[in-house]
Protein backbone atom coordinates (compact mmCIF):
# COMPACT_ATOMS: atom_id res chain seq x y z
CA UNK A 1 0.00 0.00 0.00
CA UNK A 2 1.24 3.55 -0.63
CA UNK A 3 2.80 5.33 2.33
CA UNK A 4 2.49 9.08 2.81
CA UNK A 5 5.17 11.05 4.67
CA UNK A 6 5.09 14.73 5.54
CA UNK A 7 8.28 16.28 6.88
CA UNK A 8 11.44 18.17 6.16
CA UNK A 9 13.86 18.01 3.27
CA UNK A 10 17.10 19.81 3.98
CA UNK A 11 20.73 20.57 3.33
CA UNK A 12 22.88 19.29 6.19
CA UNK A 13 26.38 20.20 7.20
CA UNK A 14 27.80 17.48 9.41
CA UNK A 15 30.94 17.34 11.51
CA UNK A 16 32.07 14.01 12.93
CA UNK A 17 35.25 13.54 14.98
CA UNK A 18 37.08 12.61 11.77
CA UNK A 19 35.26 14.18 8.81
CA UNK A 20 33.16 17.13 7.70
CA UNK A 21 30.58 17.32 4.89
CA UNK A 22 28.80 20.49 3.81
CA UNK A 23 25.42 20.98 2.14
CA UNK A 24 24.61 17.31 1.76
CA UNK A 25 21.10 15.99 1.24
CA UNK A 26 19.30 15.55 4.55
CA UNK A 27 15.98 16.11 6.32
CA UNK A 28 13.62 13.76 8.13
CA UNK A 29 11.39 13.10 5.12
CA UNK A 30 14.36 12.44 2.81
CA UNK A 31 15.77 9.68 4.99
CA UNK A 32 12.31 8.33 5.76
CA UNK A 33 11.20 8.20 2.12
CA UNK A 34 14.35 6.67 0.82
CA UNK A 35 14.40 3.93 3.48
CA UNK A 36 10.68 3.23 3.03
CA UNK A 37 11.03 3.00 -0.74
CA UNK A 38 12.61 -0.45 -0.40
CA UNK A 39 9.28 -1.73 0.85
CA UNK A 40 6.40 0.22 -0.66
CA UNK A 41 5.51 3.16 -2.94
CA UNK A 42 6.14 6.41 -1.06
CA UNK A 43 4.44 9.78 -1.43
CA UNK A 44 6.49 12.66 -0.16
CA UNK A 45 5.12 16.02 1.02
CA UNK A 46 7.62 18.73 1.89
CA UNK A 47 8.84 22.15 0.89
CA UNK A 48 12.14 23.41 -0.48
CA UNK A 49 13.58 26.69 -1.76
CA UNK A 50 14.77 27.76 -5.16
CA UNK A 51 18.25 26.49 -4.37
CA UNK A 52 16.95 22.91 -4.46
CA UNK A 53 18.75 20.94 -7.18
CA UNK A 54 16.57 19.00 -9.55
CA UNK A 55 18.94 16.05 -9.27
CA UNK A 56 17.70 15.39 -5.73
CA UNK A 57 14.11 15.26 -6.93
CA UNK A 58 15.26 12.85 -9.62
CA UNK A 59 17.07 10.80 -6.98
CA UNK A 60 13.81 10.37 -5.04
CA UNK A 61 11.93 9.53 -8.22
CA UNK A 62 14.53 6.94 -9.16
CA UNK A 63 13.28 4.99 -6.14
CA UNK A 64 9.65 5.40 -7.13
CA UNK A 65 8.99 8.14 -4.59
CA UNK A 66 6.12 10.35 -5.74
CA UNK A 67 7.42 13.94 -5.42
CA UNK A 68 4.29 15.69 -6.62
CA UNK A 69 3.82 16.96 -3.06
CA UNK A 70 7.29 18.54 -2.94
CA UNK A 71 6.62 22.28 -3.19
CA UNK A 72 9.23 24.76 -4.31
CA UNK A 73 8.68 28.05 -2.47
CA UNK A 74 9.55 31.04 -4.68
CA UNK A 75 12.17 33.38 -3.32
CA UNK A 76 12.99 31.01 -0.44
CA UNK A 77 15.94 28.87 0.49
CA UNK A 78 15.87 25.24 1.59
CA UNK A 79 15.99 24.24 5.30
CA UNK A 80 19.61 24.03 6.53
CA UNK A 81 20.95 22.19 9.56
CA UNK A 82 24.53 22.16 10.84
CA UNK A 83 25.52 19.76 13.56
CA UNK A 84 28.50 18.22 15.27
CA UNK A 85 28.86 14.73 16.72
CA UNK A 86 30.82 14.01 19.87
CA UNK A 87 33.43 11.29 20.14
CA UNK A 88 30.90 8.63 21.08
CA UNK A 89 29.05 9.27 17.77
CA UNK A 90 25.76 8.97 19.65
CA UNK A 91 25.41 12.49 21.10
CA UNK A 92 25.43 15.64 19.01
CA UNK A 93 24.86 19.37 19.15
CA UNK A 94 23.13 21.64 16.67
CA UNK A 95 25.48 24.42 15.60
CA UNK A 96 23.11 26.22 13.24
CA UNK A 97 19.49 25.87 12.13
CA UNK A 98 17.89 27.87 9.33
CA UNK A 99 14.28 26.79 8.78
CA UNK A 100 13.99 28.94 5.62
CA UNK A 101 11.20 27.56 3.39
CA UNK A 102 10.19 25.12 6.16
CA UNK A 103 9.33 27.99 8.52
CA UNK A 104 6.02 28.73 6.80
CA UNK A 105 5.38 25.16 5.65
CA UNK A 106 1.65 24.69 5.30
CA UNK A 107 1.22 21.31 3.66
CA UNK A 108 -1.66 21.07 1.23
CA UNK A 109 -2.01 17.47 0.15
CA UNK A 110 -2.72 16.51 -3.47
CA UNK A 111 -6.20 14.91 -3.61
CA UNK A 112 -4.83 11.45 -4.31
CA UNK A 113 -2.50 11.68 -1.30
CA UNK A 114 -5.42 12.34 1.05
CA UNK A 115 -6.67 8.81 0.52
CA UNK A 116 -3.40 7.26 1.74
CA UNK A 117 -4.05 4.59 4.34
CA UNK A 118 -0.56 4.66 5.90
CA UNK A 119 0.60 8.04 7.14
CA UNK A 120 3.78 9.18 8.83
CA UNK A 121 4.10 12.65 10.31
CA UNK A 122 7.83 13.23 10.47
CA UNK A 123 9.27 15.88 12.73
CA UNK A 124 7.38 19.16 12.61
CA UNK A 125 5.21 21.46 14.69
CA UNK A 126 2.28 19.52 16.18
CA UNK A 127 -0.13 22.08 14.69
CA UNK A 128 1.14 21.23 11.21
CA UNK A 129 0.97 17.54 12.05
CA UNK A 130 -2.66 17.97 13.20
CA UNK A 131 -3.45 19.87 10.01
CA UNK A 132 -2.15 16.94 7.92
CA UNK A 133 -4.11 14.47 10.03
CA UNK A 134 -7.31 16.35 9.22
CA UNK A 135 -6.58 16.15 5.52
CA UNK A 136 -6.10 12.36 5.82
CA UNK A 137 -9.17 11.72 7.92
CA UNK A 138 -9.61 8.19 6.63
CA UNK A 139 -6.08 6.88 7.24
CA UNK A 140 -5.81 3.40 8.77
CA UNK A 141 -2.47 3.88 10.49
CA UNK A 142 -1.29 7.30 11.65
CA UNK A 143 2.17 7.49 13.22
CA UNK A 144 4.08 10.61 14.24
CA UNK A 145 7.58 11.56 15.33
CA UNK A 146 8.30 14.50 17.58
CA UNK A 147 11.28 16.20 19.22
CA UNK A 148 12.42 17.97 22.36
CA UNK A 149 11.81 21.44 20.91
CA UNK A 150 8.06 20.79 20.49
CA UNK A 151 7.78 18.96 23.81
CA UNK A 152 9.09 22.12 25.44
CA UNK A 153 7.30 24.77 23.38
CA UNK A 154 4.09 23.18 22.09
CA UNK A 155 3.11 20.64 24.70
CA UNK A 156 -0.60 21.39 24.53
CA UNK A 157 -0.79 20.89 20.76
CA UNK A 158 1.37 17.80 21.10
CA UNK A 159 -1.03 16.33 23.67
CA UNK A 160 -3.91 16.92 21.24
CA UNK A 161 -1.91 15.15 18.54
CA UNK A 162 -1.19 12.21 20.85
CA UNK A 163 -4.92 11.72 21.29
CA UNK A 164 -5.42 11.37 17.55
CA UNK A 165 -2.62 9.09 16.36
CA UNK A 166 -2.06 5.35 16.49
CA UNK A 167 1.66 5.41 17.12
CA UNK A 168 4.40 7.73 18.30
CA UNK A 169 8.12 7.34 17.60
CA UNK A 170 10.55 9.36 19.72
CA UNK A 171 14.05 9.32 21.19
CA UNK A 172 14.91 8.10 24.68
CA UNK A 173 15.77 11.60 25.92
CA UNK A 174 12.51 12.91 24.48
CA UNK A 175 10.50 10.20 26.21
CA UNK A 176 12.14 11.14 29.51
CA UNK A 177 11.45 14.83 28.88
CA UNK A 178 7.82 14.23 27.92
CA UNK A 179 7.05 12.07 30.96
CA UNK A 180 9.54 13.25 33.57
CA UNK A 181 10.42 9.59 34.16
CA UNK A 182 14.04 8.39 33.87
CA UNK A 183 13.05 4.72 33.56
CA UNK A 184 12.40 4.07 29.88
CA UNK A 185 10.00 1.20 30.45
CA UNK A 186 7.78 3.35 32.65
CA UNK A 187 8.27 6.34 30.33
CA UNK A 188 7.18 4.32 27.30
CA UNK A 189 3.96 3.23 28.98
CA UNK A 190 3.29 6.76 30.23
CA UNK A 191 3.58 8.11 26.69
CA UNK A 192 1.20 5.38 25.55
CA UNK A 193 -1.29 6.46 28.20
CA UNK A 194 -1.24 9.92 26.63
CA UNK A 195 -3.08 8.52 23.62
CA UNK A 196 -1.25 6.42 21.04
CA UNK A 197 -1.91 2.69 20.85
CA UNK A 198 1.78 2.03 20.54
CA UNK A 199 5.00 3.88 21.27
CA UNK A 200 8.49 3.26 19.93
CA UNK A 201 11.44 4.70 21.82
CA UNK A 202 14.61 4.97 19.75
CA UNK A 203 17.83 4.56 21.74
CA UNK A 204 20.39 5.19 19.00
CA UNK A 205 23.27 2.73 19.25
CA UNK A 206 21.34 0.85 21.95
CA UNK A 207 18.38 -0.06 19.75
CA UNK A 208 14.66 0.52 20.20
CA UNK A 209 11.84 -0.32 22.61
CA UNK A 210 8.20 -1.03 21.81
CA UNK A 211 5.18 -0.46 24.03
CA UNK A 212 1.56 -1.37 23.52
CA UNK A 213 -1.08 -2.22 26.11
CA UNK A 214 -0.12 -5.88 26.12
CA UNK A 215 3.46 -5.85 24.94
CA UNK A 216 6.82 -4.41 25.95
CA UNK A 217 9.94 -5.40 24.11
CA UNK A 218 13.41 -4.27 23.19
CA UNK A 219 15.42 -4.73 20.03
CA UNK A 220 19.16 -4.10 20.03
CA UNK A 221 20.75 -2.08 17.26
CA UNK A 222 22.53 -4.12 14.61
CA UNK A 223 26.15 -4.00 15.80
CA UNK A 224 28.43 -2.14 13.42
CA UNK A 225 31.95 -0.89 13.80
CA UNK A 226 31.56 1.31 10.78
CA UNK A 227 29.58 4.32 12.07
CA UNK A 228 30.45 7.16 9.69
CA UNK A 229 27.51 9.53 10.25
CA UNK A 230 24.50 8.81 12.49
CA UNK A 231 22.42 11.62 10.94
CA UNK A 232 19.09 10.30 9.69
CA UNK A 233 19.34 6.98 11.53
CA UNK A 234 16.12 7.66 13.44
CA UNK A 235 14.28 8.80 10.31
CA UNK A 236 15.52 5.77 8.38
CA UNK A 237 14.30 3.64 11.27
CA UNK A 238 10.86 5.19 10.83
CA UNK A 239 11.03 4.64 7.08
CA UNK A 240 11.98 0.98 7.36
CA UNK A 241 9.33 0.38 10.01
CA UNK A 242 6.46 2.17 8.24
CA UNK A 243 7.56 0.93 4.82
CA UNK A 244 7.27 -2.67 5.97
CA UNK A 245 3.89 -2.06 7.65
CA UNK A 246 2.53 -0.43 4.48
CA UNK A 247 3.92 -3.28 2.40
CA UNK A 248 2.17 -5.80 4.62
CA UNK A 249 -0.96 -3.66 4.80
CA UNK A 250 -1.55 -4.33 8.49
CA UNK A 251 -0.13 -3.60 11.90
CA UNK A 252 -0.82 -6.78 13.80
CA UNK A 253 1.56 -7.43 16.72
CA UNK A 254 3.83 -9.80 14.76
CA UNK A 255 3.94 -7.42 11.79
CA UNK A 256 4.83 -4.54 14.08
CA UNK A 257 7.67 -6.52 15.62
CA UNK A 258 9.14 -7.40 12.26
CA UNK A 259 8.66 -3.77 11.21
CA UNK A 260 10.79 -2.67 14.17
CA UNK A 261 13.49 -5.06 13.04
CA UNK A 262 13.36 -3.63 9.51
CA UNK A 263 13.56 -0.13 10.95
CA UNK A 264 16.62 -1.19 12.94
CA UNK A 265 18.31 -2.51 9.82
CA UNK A 266 17.44 0.50 7.64
CA UNK A 267 19.11 2.67 10.29
CA UNK A 268 22.14 0.35 10.39
CA UNK A 269 22.80 1.00 6.69
CA UNK A 270 22.24 4.76 6.93
CA UNK A 271 24.95 5.26 9.57
CA UNK A 272 27.57 3.57 7.39
CA UNK A 273 28.01 6.70 5.23
CA UNK A 274 27.06 10.37 5.04
CA UNK A 275 23.65 11.43 3.75
CA UNK A 276 21.86 8.75 1.70
CA UNK A 277 25.15 7.48 0.29
CA UNK A 278 24.98 4.01 1.82
CA UNK A 279 21.26 3.53 1.18
CA UNK A 280 21.86 4.44 -2.45
CA UNK A 281 24.19 1.45 -2.79
CA UNK A 282 21.81 -1.22 -1.56
CA UNK A 283 18.87 -3.25 -2.77
CA UNK A 284 16.04 -4.83 -0.83
CA UNK A 285 17.93 -8.13 -0.87
CA UNK A 286 20.79 -6.52 1.08
CA UNK A 287 18.33 -5.56 3.81
CA UNK A 288 16.86 -9.06 3.82
CA UNK A 289 20.31 -10.62 3.99
CA UNK A 290 21.11 -8.49 7.02
CA UNK A 291 17.72 -9.47 8.46
CA UNK A 292 18.77 -13.10 8.38
CA UNK A 293 22.00 -12.25 10.23
CA UNK A 294 20.05 -10.19 12.75
CA UNK A 295 17.58 -13.01 13.37
CA UNK A 296 20.43 -15.48 13.82
CA UNK A 297 22.07 -13.07 16.24
CA UNK A 298 18.93 -12.99 18.39
CA UNK A 299 18.19 -16.70 18.44
CA UNK A 300 19.64 -19.04 20.99
CA UNK B 1 30.34 -29.11 37.11
CA UNK B 2 31.47 -27.12 40.14
CA UNK B 3 32.26 -23.45 39.56
CA UNK B 4 34.95 -21.62 41.49
CA UNK B 5 34.73 -17.87 42.10
CA UNK B 6 37.33 -15.69 43.78
CA UNK B 7 36.33 -12.14 44.65
CA UNK B 8 35.00 -9.74 47.22
CA UNK B 9 32.34 -10.12 49.87
CA UNK B 10 31.31 -6.81 51.37
CA UNK B 11 28.94 -4.61 53.28
CA UNK B 12 27.35 -2.06 50.98
CA UNK B 13 25.63 1.21 51.77
CA UNK B 14 23.50 2.24 48.83
CA UNK B 15 21.68 5.47 48.05
CA UNK B 16 19.17 5.52 45.22
CA UNK B 17 17.11 8.59 44.29
CA UNK B 18 14.30 7.30 46.51
CA UNK B 19 15.81 5.02 49.18
CA UNK B 20 18.87 4.35 51.27
CA UNK B 21 20.12 1.07 52.74
CA UNK B 22 23.10 0.71 55.05
CA UNK B 23 25.42 -2.22 55.67
CA UNK B 24 23.63 -4.66 53.40
CA UNK B 25 25.24 -7.80 52.01
CA UNK B 26 27.19 -7.02 48.83
CA UNK B 27 30.43 -7.73 47.01
CA UNK B 28 31.18 -9.16 43.58
CA UNK B 29 31.59 -12.74 44.75
CA UNK B 30 28.38 -12.64 46.81
CA UNK B 31 26.21 -11.66 43.87
CA UNK B 32 28.10 -13.94 41.54
CA UNK B 33 27.86 -17.00 43.79
CA UNK B 34 24.23 -16.55 44.62
CA UNK B 35 23.20 -16.10 40.96
CA UNK B 36 25.37 -19.02 39.83
CA UNK B 37 23.96 -21.28 42.54
CA UNK B 38 20.73 -21.68 40.54
CA UNK B 39 22.71 -23.56 37.91
CA UNK B 40 25.62 -25.42 39.47
CA UNK B 41 27.49 -26.08 42.75
CA UNK B 42 29.57 -23.01 43.60
CA UNK B 43 32.83 -22.76 45.54
CA UNK B 44 33.47 -19.34 46.99
CA UNK B 45 36.87 -17.92 47.88
CA UNK B 46 36.96 -14.57 49.64
CA UNK B 47 37.96 -12.87 52.86
CA UNK B 48 35.96 -11.06 55.54
CA UNK B 49 36.60 -9.48 58.91
CA UNK B 50 35.48 -10.38 62.39
CA UNK B 51 32.34 -8.29 61.94
CA UNK B 52 31.05 -10.80 59.40
CA UNK B 53 27.76 -12.29 60.61
CA UNK B 54 27.48 -16.04 60.55
CA UNK B 55 23.98 -15.73 59.11
CA UNK B 56 25.43 -14.58 55.77
CA UNK B 57 27.65 -17.63 55.59
CA UNK B 58 24.57 -19.71 56.34
CA UNK B 59 22.68 -17.87 53.60
CA UNK B 60 25.33 -18.90 51.06
CA UNK B 61 25.33 -22.45 52.35
CA UNK B 62 21.53 -22.62 52.09
CA UNK B 63 22.06 -22.39 48.32
CA UNK B 64 24.70 -25.10 48.30
CA UNK B 65 27.59 -22.65 48.05
CA UNK B 66 30.76 -24.16 49.50
CA UNK B 67 32.14 -21.51 51.88
CA UNK B 68 35.20 -23.42 53.03
CA UNK B 69 37.31 -20.87 51.11
CA UNK B 70 35.80 -17.91 52.94
CA UNK B 71 38.56 -16.77 55.30
CA UNK B 72 37.89 -14.70 58.40
CA UNK B 73 40.84 -12.37 58.98
CA UNK B 74 41.50 -11.88 62.72
CA UNK B 75 41.37 -8.28 63.88
CA UNK B 76 40.09 -7.03 60.53
CA UNK B 77 36.86 -5.57 59.30
CA UNK B 78 34.93 -6.59 56.19
CA UNK B 79 35.24 -4.65 52.91
CA UNK B 80 32.78 -1.72 52.85
CA UNK B 81 31.47 0.21 49.85
CA UNK B 82 29.20 3.23 49.86
CA UNK B 83 27.71 4.50 46.63
CA UNK B 84 25.02 6.73 45.23
CA UNK B 85 22.98 6.26 42.05
CA UNK B 86 21.97 9.14 39.84
CA UNK B 87 18.43 9.69 38.62
CA UNK B 88 18.86 7.48 35.57
CA UNK B 89 19.75 4.53 37.88
CA UNK B 90 22.48 3.52 35.42
CA UNK B 91 25.32 5.83 36.52
CA UNK B 92 26.70 5.97 40.03
CA UNK B 93 29.47 7.41 42.15
CA UNK B 94 31.49 5.80 44.91
CA UNK B 95 31.21 7.86 48.10
CA UNK B 96 33.42 5.72 50.28
CA UNK B 97 35.55 2.61 49.91
CA UNK B 98 37.21 0.74 52.77
CA UNK B 99 39.03 -2.35 51.53
CA UNK B 100 39.72 -3.55 55.09
CA UNK B 101 40.28 -7.33 55.09
CA UNK B 102 40.28 -7.33 51.28
CA UNK B 103 43.33 -5.07 51.13
CA UNK B 104 45.73 -7.88 51.96
CA UNK B 105 43.66 -10.63 50.35
CA UNK B 106 45.99 -13.43 49.32
CA UNK B 107 43.76 -16.28 48.27
CA UNK B 108 45.04 -19.72 49.10
CA UNK B 109 42.76 -22.27 47.54
CA UNK B 110 41.72 -25.44 49.36
CA UNK B 111 43.21 -28.44 47.51
CA UNK B 112 39.87 -29.60 46.20
CA UNK B 113 39.14 -26.15 44.79
CA UNK B 114 42.31 -26.18 42.71
CA UNK B 115 40.87 -28.92 40.53
CA UNK B 116 37.82 -26.83 39.55
CA UNK B 117 37.33 -26.82 35.79
CA UNK B 118 35.28 -23.61 35.64
CA UNK B 119 36.88 -20.56 37.19
CA UNK B 120 35.71 -16.97 37.54
CA UNK B 121 38.06 -14.26 38.74
CA UNK B 122 35.73 -11.55 40.00
CA UNK B 123 36.96 -8.00 40.40
CA UNK B 124 40.34 -7.75 42.05
CA UNK B 125 43.94 -6.76 41.42
CA UNK B 126 45.30 -8.54 38.31
CA UNK B 127 48.24 -9.81 40.37
CA UNK B 128 45.83 -11.60 42.70
CA UNK B 129 43.89 -12.88 39.73
CA UNK B 130 47.12 -14.23 38.18
CA UNK B 131 48.00 -15.85 41.47
CA UNK B 132 44.66 -17.71 41.50
CA UNK B 133 45.14 -18.74 37.88
CA UNK B 134 48.41 -20.39 38.80
CA UNK B 135 46.74 -22.36 41.57
CA UNK B 136 44.12 -23.61 39.09
CA UNK B 137 46.53 -24.49 36.32
CA UNK B 138 44.29 -27.20 34.89
CA UNK B 139 41.06 -25.21 34.57
CA UNK B 140 39.10 -25.67 31.35
CA UNK B 141 37.43 -22.27 31.29
CA UNK B 142 39.01 -19.22 32.92
CA UNK B 143 37.03 -16.00 32.85
CA UNK B 144 37.86 -12.72 34.59
CA UNK B 145 36.20 -9.41 35.34
CA UNK B 146 38.12 -6.19 35.75
CA UNK B 147 37.47 -2.52 36.44
CA UNK B 148 38.60 1.01 35.56
CA UNK B 149 40.82 1.27 38.66
CA UNK B 150 43.03 -1.64 37.56
CA UNK B 151 42.99 -0.55 33.90
CA UNK B 152 44.46 2.75 35.07
CA UNK B 153 46.86 1.55 37.75
CA UNK B 154 47.86 -2.01 36.83
CA UNK B 155 47.70 -2.13 33.04
CA UNK B 156 50.84 -4.22 32.66
CA UNK B 157 49.65 -6.95 35.03
CA UNK B 158 46.22 -6.80 33.41
CA UNK B 159 47.75 -7.36 29.97
CA UNK B 160 49.57 -10.42 31.33
CA UNK B 161 46.27 -11.69 32.72
CA UNK B 162 44.52 -11.13 29.37
CA UNK B 163 47.05 -13.41 27.72
CA UNK B 164 46.20 -16.24 30.11
CA UNK B 165 42.40 -16.28 30.28
CA UNK B 166 39.70 -17.57 27.98
CA UNK B 167 37.16 -14.81 28.54
CA UNK B 168 36.93 -11.28 29.90
CA UNK B 169 33.78 -9.57 31.18
CA UNK B 170 33.84 -5.78 31.56
CA UNK B 171 31.66 -2.67 31.40
CA UNK B 172 31.21 -0.49 28.33
CA UNK B 173 33.11 2.44 29.87
CA UNK B 174 35.93 0.07 30.88
CA UNK B 175 36.17 -1.34 27.34
CA UNK B 176 36.46 2.20 25.99
CA UNK B 177 39.10 3.05 28.60
CA UNK B 178 41.12 -0.09 27.93
CA UNK B 179 41.17 0.36 24.15
CA UNK B 180 40.79 4.11 23.67
CA UNK B 181 38.00 3.36 21.18
CA UNK B 182 34.54 4.89 21.60
CA UNK B 183 32.89 2.41 19.24
CA UNK B 184 31.94 -0.63 21.33
CA UNK B 185 32.07 -3.09 18.44
CA UNK B 186 35.61 -2.09 17.60
CA UNK B 187 36.51 -1.90 21.31
CA UNK B 188 35.21 -5.42 21.93
CA UNK B 189 37.35 -6.87 19.18
CA UNK B 190 40.39 -4.88 20.31
CA UNK B 191 40.06 -6.33 23.82
CA UNK B 192 39.78 -9.78 22.28
CA UNK B 193 42.99 -9.18 20.37
CA UNK B 194 44.70 -8.54 23.71
CA UNK B 195 44.35 -12.25 24.50
CA UNK B 196 41.00 -13.69 25.57
CA UNK B 197 39.10 -15.92 23.16
CA UNK B 198 35.91 -14.11 23.97
CA UNK B 199 34.90 -10.79 25.47
CA UNK B 200 31.60 -9.73 27.00
CA UNK B 201 30.85 -6.02 27.32
CA UNK B 202 28.14 -5.22 29.86
CA UNK B 203 26.08 -2.13 29.01
CA UNK B 204 23.84 -1.97 32.09
CA UNK B 205 20.26 -1.14 31.12
CA UNK B 206 21.24 -1.52 27.46
CA UNK B 207 22.24 -5.18 27.69
CA UNK B 208 25.44 -6.95 26.73
CA UNK B 209 27.63 -7.58 23.69
CA UNK B 210 29.63 -10.69 22.84
CA UNK B 211 32.80 -10.92 20.77
CA UNK B 212 34.75 -13.94 19.58
CA UNK B 213 36.84 -14.33 16.47
CA UNK B 214 33.86 -15.40 14.39
CA UNK B 215 30.94 -13.89 16.23
CA UNK B 216 29.66 -10.48 17.30
CA UNK B 217 26.25 -10.14 18.87
CA UNK B 218 24.17 -8.03 21.19
CA UNK B 219 21.55 -8.97 23.74
CA UNK B 220 19.24 -6.35 25.16
CA UNK B 221 18.56 -6.18 28.88
CA UNK B 222 15.26 -7.67 30.00
CA UNK B 223 13.02 -4.60 30.18
CA UNK B 224 11.87 -3.82 33.68
CA UNK B 225 10.17 -0.80 35.16
CA UNK B 226 11.02 -1.96 38.62
CA UNK B 227 14.69 -1.00 39.06
CA UNK B 228 15.18 -0.66 42.81
CA UNK B 229 18.96 -1.05 43.10
CA UNK B 230 21.34 -1.85 40.22
CA UNK B 231 24.19 -2.85 42.56
CA UNK B 232 25.43 -6.33 41.75
CA UNK B 233 23.68 -6.54 38.36
CA UNK B 234 26.99 -7.03 36.55
CA UNK B 235 28.20 -9.62 39.04
CA UNK B 236 24.88 -11.46 38.88
CA UNK B 237 25.21 -11.38 35.10
CA UNK B 238 28.58 -13.09 35.47
CA UNK B 239 27.10 -15.62 37.88
CA UNK B 240 24.19 -16.51 35.62
CA UNK B 241 26.48 -16.78 32.63
CA UNK B 242 29.21 -18.86 34.26
CA UNK B 243 26.70 -20.91 36.25
CA UNK B 244 24.99 -22.02 33.06
CA UNK B 245 28.30 -22.78 31.32
CA UNK B 246 29.45 -24.89 34.27
CA UNK B 247 26.08 -26.65 34.38
CA UNK B 248 26.38 -27.50 30.68
CA UNK B 249 30.06 -28.38 31.06
CA UNK B 250 31.08 -26.71 27.81
CA UNK B 251 31.43 -23.33 26.17
CA UNK B 252 30.46 -24.02 22.60
CA UNK B 253 29.12 -20.98 20.70
CA UNK B 254 25.44 -21.88 21.23
CA UNK B 255 26.03 -22.62 24.93
CA UNK B 256 27.80 -19.28 25.33
CA UNK B 257 24.91 -17.43 23.72
CA UNK B 258 22.37 -19.04 26.00
CA UNK B 259 24.70 -18.33 28.92
CA UNK B 260 24.64 -14.64 28.05
CA UNK B 261 20.86 -14.76 28.09
CA UNK B 262 20.89 -16.41 31.53
CA UNK B 263 23.32 -13.76 32.73
CA UNK B 264 20.96 -11.07 31.46
CA UNK B 265 18.05 -12.61 33.34
CA UNK B 266 19.97 -13.14 36.59
CA UNK B 267 20.82 -9.43 36.48
CA UNK B 268 17.20 -8.53 35.78
CA UNK B 269 16.12 -10.16 39.04
CA UNK B 270 18.93 -8.64 41.09
CA UNK B 271 17.99 -5.04 40.23
CA UNK B 272 14.42 -5.56 41.45
CA UNK B 273 15.46 -5.20 45.11
CA UNK B 274 18.40 -4.24 47.32
CA UNK B 275 21.21 -6.70 48.00
CA UNK B 276 20.27 -10.33 47.31
CA UNK B 277 16.70 -9.75 48.42
CA UNK B 278 15.07 -10.49 45.07
CA UNK B 279 17.32 -13.43 44.24
CA UNK B 280 16.44 -14.92 47.61
CA UNK B 281 12.78 -15.07 46.58
CA UNK B 282 13.20 -17.00 43.36
CA UNK B 283 13.74 -20.54 42.16
CA UNK B 284 15.37 -21.81 38.99
CA UNK B 285 11.92 -22.15 37.44
CA UNK B 286 11.36 -18.39 37.82
CA UNK B 287 14.50 -17.77 35.78
CA UNK B 288 13.40 -20.29 33.17
CA UNK B 289 9.95 -18.73 32.98
CA UNK B 290 11.53 -15.34 32.34
CA UNK B 291 13.78 -17.00 29.76
CA UNK B 292 10.71 -18.07 27.82
CA UNK B 293 9.39 -14.49 27.86
CA UNK B 294 12.79 -13.17 26.82
CA UNK B 295 13.00 -15.62 23.92
CA UNK B 296 9.51 -14.69 22.80
CA UNK B 297 10.45 -11.03 23.00
CA UNK B 298 13.38 -11.59 20.65
CA UNK B 299 11.62 -13.73 18.06
CA UNK B 300 9.77 -12.26 15.14
Description:
Two copies of one chain form a homodimer. Chain A has a nine-stranded mixed sheet with strand order 5-4-1-8-9-10-11-12-13, sandwiched between helices. A four-stranded mixed sheet of chain A has the order 3-2-6-7. In chain A, a hairpin with a 5-residue loop joins strand 11 and strand 12. Chain A has one domain: 3-Layer(aba) Sandwich (UDP-N-acetylmuramoyl-L-alanine:D-glutamate ligase), CATH 3.40.1190. With 300 residues, chain A is of the alpha/beta class. The model of chain A has no long low-confidence stretch (mean pLDDT 97). The first copy, chain A, has eleven helices and 13 strands. Helices cover 38% and strands 24% of the residues of chain A. At the A-B interface, helix 7, strand 13 and helix 9 of A face helix 7, strand 13 and helix 9 of B.
What's this model, at a glance?
The structure is a homodimer of 300-residue chains. Chain A is an alpha/beta fold and 300 residues long.
Query: How would you classify the helix and strand content of chain A by structural class?
Result: alpha/beta
Q: Between the first and last Cα atoms of chain A, what is the distance in angstroms?
A: 34 Å
Can you tell me the number of structural domains of chain A?
1
Assess the beta-strand content of chain A as a share of residues: 15-25%
Q: Return the CATH class of chain A.
A: Alpha Beta
Amino acid sequence: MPLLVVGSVAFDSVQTPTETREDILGGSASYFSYAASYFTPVRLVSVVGEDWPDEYTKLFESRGIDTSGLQVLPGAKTFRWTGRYFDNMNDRETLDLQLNAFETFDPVLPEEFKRCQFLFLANGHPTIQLNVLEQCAGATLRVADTMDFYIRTAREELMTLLGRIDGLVLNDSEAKLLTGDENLVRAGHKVREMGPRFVVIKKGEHGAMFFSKHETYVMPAYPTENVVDPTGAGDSFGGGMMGYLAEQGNFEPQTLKKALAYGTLAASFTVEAFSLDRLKQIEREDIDRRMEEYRRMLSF
